[in-house]
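User: If only I could read backbone structure tokens as easily as an amino acid sequence. Those tokens are not coordinates but codes from a learned vocabulary of shapes. Could you go through the record with me and say what the backbone is doing? Here is the record:
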Amino acid sequence: QIDLTGSSIFDYVHPADHNDLLDMLSLNETDRQAIQAQIGAANQRLSSAPTTGISSASPQVEHLELGRSFSMRMKCILPKRNAGLIKNGYKFIHCTGYLKIRLTNQKPAQEQLQLRLQHQKLTPDGHH
């Protein structure tokens, strides 16, 4: 393990894998379609809920998690243990985790649910 606090992950990822890493940490069109389907379902639940007389001024929040699993090459700066698993100073690392999406129904200027990427968590797993 190494502490990356204050460092960019891109300092450790092989340059040829930078775009792939960005893709994994971003929302693609398939993700957006899945999120829109979830938003539609949430809107349906809100519109069909019985009126309770309680003010709905407080925003409801929902979280969505989009799974990710990918491999990338990371710079190996550890001593030469298992040197056969390292090629040109890089080792293949398998990462799994999720993008956590937070949905709110706050309506400052729009009459729809707003989408914000709140948190990203990936767990690297040494793999050869």
In short: The chain is about 20% helix and 35% strand.
